[in-house]
Amino acid sequence: MGNPEAIAAGKKLFATSCIGCHGPNGQGGRGPNLRQRGVWHPLDDDGLFQTIRKGVPGADMPATNLPDTQIWEIAAYVRSLTAPAVETAVPGNAQTGEEIYWGKGGCSNCHRILGRGGMLGPDLSNVGAVRAVEEIRESIVDPDADGFPTYKGVTAVLNDGRTIKGVARNRTNYSVQIQDAQGNLHLLKMPDVRTITYAEHSPMPRNYKERLSRQELEDLIAFLSRQSVRPYEPEKK
Ligand code: HEC
Ligand code: HEC
Question: For atom 37 of ligand 1, which residue has the closest CA?
Answer without folding.
Answer: 18
